[in-house]
Automatic annotation (TrEMBL):
GO biological process, one term: polyketide metabolic process
Transmembrane segments: none
PANTHER family cross-referenced by the UniProt entry: ESTER CYCLASE (PTHR38436:SF1), POLYKETIDE CYCLASE SNOAL-LIKE DOMAIN (PTHR38436)
Name this polypeptide is given: Ester cyclase
Gene3D superfamilies: 3.10.450.50
InterPro entries: Cyclase_SnoaL-like, NTF2-like_dom_sf
Species for this entry: Sphingobium algorifonticola
Pfam families per the UniProt record, alphabetical: SnoaL
Length: 333
């Protein structure tokens, strides 16, 4: 995909406060570099000076940590807090995507909780969890970011909560939503659409079917048309079976627990054989138990993101996904 506006970008400050000019890069190359810097250098190495170099002064974090100040200072505070709580943290960057003015990264963090983290004393426990970030870029700087991490899984590893997902009540999947007026992706932003090649147009259609029809509407029959037989879910639910059957299990558990589940897709980012989406989910927990919690008829709203790799045959081979399940647990408990 070609986002070919040429601009000159500036890297981090050099000695003496001067700026070192980088070579001219395409817009997509800038976004890929910003994402790599964000994960490998800012979070991975703790280079907080990159916040001033790579983010706009009025950057908006749409999913801040509770109590996080706005702007650049807030971003630096969160990085320092995590690195103080997990001094040996290491991040593996799985993929970066760029389209138009948007970018996405997906990563896994490993570390040991040997320091105080947001008021929690050290547990000396090892942790491993994943996250997905989406950014918007203007003039070579990140102006907005959305991010979802596996915080429920993280807190389970620290011994704070017991993690579970669902318990199927029925032997057959729940019927799909049949509301013809329900269009979960009607307002989705698709950056760089006019520059897509044939592969990317095809993959956008696959991404829409995946999240809007399979997950938002519950059309479980589509799973065998969308996923490769050996599809890998890199973020499985506790006890989830491998392959397509396990993914359909999770879909069934969720829809049994939340019969009125609705989703609204905010954005798709398509880059070659990689696709990403960002969504909001709402519903009422009045069906089956969810996360070990008896239904109490409570409403919830959470956000999530998905990243998929699509093979040459049009089948999804890999899925990474992160949801605000800790927030969900808090809202329905």
């Amino acid at each position: 995909m070609a986002f070919v506006v040429q601009i000159v970008i500036r890297d981090r400050p050099c000695a003496g406060g001067r700026w070192r000019l980088f070579r001219t890069m395409t817009g997509s190359a800038i976004i890929h570099r910003l994402l790599r810097d964000q994960i490998e250098r800012l979070w991975g190495q703790g280079e907080v000076d990159l916040v001033d170099a790579n983010y706009a002064h009025d950057v908006v974090d749409h999913m801040p940590v509770p109590g996080q100040p706005g702007g650049l200072a807030g971003l630096k505070d969160v990085v320092r807090a995590f690195r103080a709580g997990l001094p040996d943290m290491r991040l593996r960057l799985h993929a970066t995507l760029a389209a138009g003015d948007m970018g996405v990264d997906v990563w896994t963090l490993n570390g040991t909780h040997t320091g105080t983290l947001f008021g929690r004393p050290a547990t000396e426990r090892s942790v491993s969890f994943s996250g997905i970030d989406m950014v918007q870029v203007r003039d070579g700087r990140i102006t907005a970011l959305w991010h979802v991490e596996e915080m429920l899984h993280f807190e389970q590893q620290l011994g704070i909560v017991q993690e579970s997902f669902g318990t199927p009540l029925k032997a057959v999947p729940v019927a799909a939503t049949d509301d013809s007026a329900y269009e979960p992706g009607a307002d989705a932003y698709v950056p760089g659409l006019s520059d897509f090649n044939a592969q990317e147009h095809r993959n956008l259609a696959i991404a829409r079917t995946h999240i809007e029809e399979l997950w938002a509407k519950g059309r479980h029959d589509l799973a065998w048309q969308l996923y490769a037989p050996d599809v890998v879910d890199h973020n499985p639910a506790p006890g989830q079976r491998p392959g397509i059957a396990g993914i359909v299990d999770v879909l069934g558990w969720l829809r049994e627990a939340v019969p009125d589940l609705r989703m609204r897709i905010g954005c798709y980012v398509i880059d070659g054989n990689m696709v990403a989406d960002r969504w909001t989910m709402t519903g009422t927990h009045n069906g089956a138990p969810l996360m070990g919690i008896t239904p109490r008829g409570r409403r919830f709203t959470i956000a999530g993101m998905d990243v998929c790799r699509i093979g040459a045959d049009g089948l999804i081979t890999d899925v990474w996904h992160c949801e605000e399940f800790l927030k969900l647990r808090t809202q329905i408990a």
